[in-house]
Design a protein that fits this description.
One of its GO terms (biological process) is endocytic recycling. With 137 residues, the protein is of the alpha+beta class. It has three helices and four strands.
Length: 137
């Protein structure tokens, strides 16, 4: 069995989104993209006490060709929304740092800077294997 990591992905990431905490009314079967918030909140929100701790975690989706796409999540205290990046690249530390930077921009209401960061990262060519990745914020 070969690697389940997609070879030569076209983009550094496929999608960035901020998911709202799903409610029990959201239990109706829906399109696959609408199911993503359930992966961002993999627990019963009613049973968990709020915490000031930020949690980073990952989920994995498998496409029709068997390739893994990683969902990198940042769930802040209060559990109202979750920041998430979907990518075929298993760059755990890099994407967690990017999510923390995104959260800082959102907290400071620096939406233009955030849009520029996401656009630049999205349009940047994927580095070649064993090439260093330098990100400056």
């Amino acid at each position: 069995m070969g690697s389940r990591i997609k070879e030569n992905p076209q983009k550094t990431f496929d999608l960035f989104f901020e998911a709202a905490c799903p409610t029990s009314a959201d239990d109706v079967p829906q399109e696959s993209i609408q199911m993503l918030p359930k992966f961002c909140f993999p627990f019963d929100i009613e049973r968990v006490k709020e915490s000031s701790v930020v949690q980073n975690f990952t989920f994995v989706l498998t496409d029709l060709e068997g390739n893994q796409r990683f969902g990198f999540c940042r769930l802040a205290g209060g559990f109202r929304t979750c920041l998430c990046i979907l990518s075929y690249l298993p760059w755990f530390e890099v994407f967690y740092k990017i999510l923390n930077n995104i959260a800082d921009h959102l907290a400071k209401e620096q939406l233009n800077e955030l849009a520029e960061l996401l656009s630049t990262l999205y349009c940047h060519p994927v580095p070649h294997l064993n090439s260093p990745v330098n990100l400056e914020f």
